[in-house]
Write a structure and sequence with these properties.
about 350 residues, mainly beta, six-stranded antiparallel beta sheet, four-stranded antiparallel beta sheet, 1 helix, elongated
Length: about 350
């Protein structure tokens, strides 16, 4: 299967003739849509907390969007009928410890079609460097992926230009395979009018403008797709493939705290795991105090952005509980932090829709 592409702006879609020879078109980096500057504070080996991280270190180039021969996108639905796109995470770009995969953040540059259509976030086993068996899936609605300026959020833990506007959470966290490597991405079906395109890094070897850098030399081993014949192929494996050295805007969220979560405790205060977890509506939050204290809670998403503040005021010694309605939040992984008399306790909370 021959692959022919040209690189696009987010707002521009080009299609080449179906019988043209494979070639590299002009390169136009996609401008980061999120208008808010952010200061990267840590990378994969200096995690956002002791038990959580978002894997972003592969995505270090200029954000770009490549169109495909016959319409659609290289990293998305296209005229070749590609069925899935995925990225290998194997510790080459940061430490991957034993733990679980809780979800995936996506950097989508193009979403068009029925708002009720879905892509399926997917984790594949690593079968000798090739995507193997499916370990878990989660649906992501087209309507949940906003490609306007307001829809993009910077991943604060990323050292490079990693943004997201799509989020998937696995109802049951997926154990990281024993070898510490896995493929993460999404699969999709085709329906009239539906088109998604994933943002990737640019590829200077494919004709980028002078001074533009950001290729991904490990594309031949780390950037993959599933073709219409159900075979898996890397993006740069010679003739017949895209021959692109690019990384995809796919960012797994992982939790390195294995085992059953126990109550978090310090200085006589304790915070229990919310129940139910994952939550699709109201969830119970319980905690205890060994003395009277001013208590408040914050809920933050995986990028560290606070999405809810809850002030409880002064509370007496003893056990307490309250309910929180998660329906105000998007599906995803969140961190619930209790602040009491200078003590901070955090537990992971999952929201499903």
């Amino acid at each position: 299967m021959k692959k022919i592409y040209t690189l696009l702006f987010v707002t521009l879609l080009l299609a080449a003739s179906a019988d043209a020879q494979r070639m590299v078109g002009s390169s136009f980096p996609v401008k980061a849509k999120n208008p808010y500057a952010f200061a990267p504070s840590q990378n994969q080996t200096s995690r956002t907390s002791s038990t959580n991280d978002t894997l972003t270190l592969h995505f270090m180039g200029t954000p770009s969007l490549y169109g495909s021969q016959g319409g659609g996108f290289v990293s998305g639905q296209n005229g070749y009928g590609d069925l899935a796109k995925m990225q290998l995470f194997d510790g080459s770009y940061g430490v991957i410890d034993a733990g679980v995969i809780t979800g995936i953040l996506f950097y989508m540059g193009w979403v068009e079609g029925d708002p009720n259509s879905v892509i399926t976030a997917t984790i594949w086993d690593d079968s000798g460097g090739t995507p193997g068996s499916i370990l878990g899936t989660a649906p992501v609605l087209y309507s949940s992926m906003d490609t306007t300026v307001a829809g993009y959020f910077a991943i604060a833990s990323a050292p490079g230009p990693a943004f997201y506007n799509g989020i998937a959470v696995f109802a049951t966290p997926i154990p990281i395979p024993a070898g510490g490597s896995f493929f993460a991405g999404f699969s999709f079906t085709y329906a009239a009018g539906d088109t998604v395109g994933l943002t990737t890094t640019n590829d200077p070897t494919g004709g980028d403008a002078p001074g533009i850098t950001g290729d991904f030399p490990d594309a031949a081993t780390h950037t993959w797709e599933e073709w219409s014949d159900n075979s898996f192929n890397s993006y740069n494996a010679g003739a017949g493939t895209w021959q692109l050295d690019i990384a995809q805007g796919i960012f797994p969220t992982v939790d390195f705290g294995v085992g059953i979560q126990k109550p978090s405790a310090n200085n006589g205060f304790s915070l229990n795991q919310n129940y139910p977890n994952p939550a699709a509506g109201e969830t119970m939050i319980s905690y205890s105090l060994d003395k009277t204290a001013d208590v408040s809670f914050t809920i933050a998403d995986v990028t560290g952005r606070t999405v809810s503040d809850i002030a409880m005021g002064s509370q007496a010694q003893g056990s307490h509980k309250f309910t929180f309605d998660t329906r105000s939040l998007n599906a995803g992984v969140y961190f619930l932090t209790m602040n009491a008399d200078g003590t901070r306790l955090t537990t992971r909370m999952m929201v499903a829709k």
